[in-house]
Design goal:
Its EC number is 2.7.7.65. It catalyses: 2 GTP = 3',3'-c-di-GMP + 2 diphosphate. Pfam families: GGDEF (PF00990), PAS_4 (PF08448). This is diguanylate cyclase. This protein is an alpha+beta fold and about 325 residues long. It is built from 12 helices and 10 strands. Helices cover about 40% and strands about 20% of the residues. The strands form 2 sheets. It has a 5-stranded antiparallel sheet with strand order 2-1-5-4-3. Strands 7-8-6-9-10 form a 5-stranded mixed sheet, sandwiched between helices. It binds guanosine-5'-triphosphate.
Length: about 325
């Protein structure tokens, strides 16, 4: 730190040059970029600096001599009143962090009395002068900091939301699916309820890509995702992109037979989109094969076994001709 008085003994440095500059303190108080209020022992305002005047619309001449809580009755019962009381009666200083007490004083951005109050950080400090007790209230405008914090919080929230959404299709991504499956498995294990899982794969999608190009392939994936997600009506159901051209659905409180019906409705809905497929594909239109597996407390009681069973059912649906639903445990006749 710079030493402005290198040759002055320490004891003398504390006594400022008041006689030469009688208005120095007044001027500093007028320039201070924070609110300064001094109360006497009866809570009457004895100092109200220029910052307070310009942010409250009340000149010092109007408020000095008045009891603070008569002037601002809305402060009664607030933490500020308690802090002032403790300062004047028990000599206790206090800091009121903005997070707890955001805008106690009716203060507005300079010259705009009305609208949003400035966010305030307040310190209350007792002091004595002669035999008299006073308290200093310092009020900082922390609106910019609070605004920045809010923005960062919003951005963090939006990033968090994005990290659970598949960028191409707008439905849940694999991470979201994994979290939802674990959560619902835990619930099924605790309460012994139903839980079903669908794994879906677009048929001959390589042929689609090869024929129409990757970009149109992406557009096809997005259309299929929208249609399939639209078939899941209940709020607890989760439609997700499992990876590549594979989709998945977590269906809580859904038995294997109910899941088969849902899967059949999804299969029919995709076929009914009538998206023209590549000539090399097994069908003229884009279709989807679906494997279904359901929670079973003895056999399929964790994510790995449930996914494996759904994947095997999906494989069986492919091998038995595609554009169909196979439920784990179905007897399937293979086409090849
Ligand atoms: N356009 C696009 N294609 C993708 C994406 N992810 C995976 N694919 C393609 O999907 C195709 C999957 O092909 P395969 O796994 O051979 O299976 P398939 O042609 O669908 O055949 P079956 O599953 O047996 O019906 C590959 O050509 C991948 O490149 C993607 O995000 N966008």
């Amino acid at each position: 730190m710079l030493d402005h008085f290198p040759n002055t003994p320490l004891a003398q440095r504390t006594a400022p040059a008041i006689p030469q500059h009688p208005n120095l303190f007044k001027r500093i108080l007028g320039l201070a970029n924070l609110g300064l209020v001094v109360l006497d022992a009866r809570k009457r305002i004895v100092l109200w600096n220029q910052w307070m005047a310009s942010h409250s619309g009340m000149a010092a001449s109007r408020v000095e001599g008045q009891e603070l809580f008569d002037l601002f009755p809305e402060l009664l019962g607030q933490r500020l009143e308690l802090a002032v009381h403790s300062a004047l009666t028990n000599n206790i200083a206090a800091h009121l962090p903005q997070a707890l007490n955001r805008t106690p004083f009716p203060l507005y951005p300079s010259g705009t009395w009305g609208g949003e109050r400035v966010e305030q950080s307040i310190a209350v400090t007792p002091f004595s002068e002669g035999r008299e007790r006073f308290c200093l209230i310092e009020i900082g405008d922390v609106s910019t900091t609070v605004g920045r914090e809010r923005l960062l919080r919003d951005q963090a929230e939006s990033l968090r939301a994005q990290s659970y959404v598949d960028g191409l299709t707008g439905i849940a991504n694999r991470r979201h699916f994994d979290v939802a499956l674990q959560r619902e498995l835990g619930r099924a294990q605790r309460h012994g309820g139903h839980l079903s899982l669908l794994l879906m794969d677009i048929d001959s999608f390589k042929a689609y890509n090869d024929h129409f190009g990757h970009q149109q392939g992406d557009a096809c994936l997005a259309m299929v995702a929208e249609a399939f997600a639209g078939k899941l009506q209940r709020a607890a159901d989760l439609a997700a992109r499992y990876g590549g051209e594979e989709f998945a659905a977590v269906l809580p409180d859904t038995s294997a037979e109910q899941a088969r019906q849902h899967a059949e409705a999804i299969r029919a809905c995709i076929a009914a989109l009538n998206i023209t497929h590549a000539p090399a594909a097994s069908r003229p239109n884009v279709t989807m094969s679906i494997g279904v597996a359901s929670f079973d407390k003895d056999r399929l009681n964790d994510g790995e076994s449930l996914l494996r069973a759904a994947d095997q059912a999906l494989y069986a649906a492919k091998r038995s001709g595609r554009d169909r639903v196979v439920v784990d445990g179905d007897a399937v006749t293979m086409a090849e």
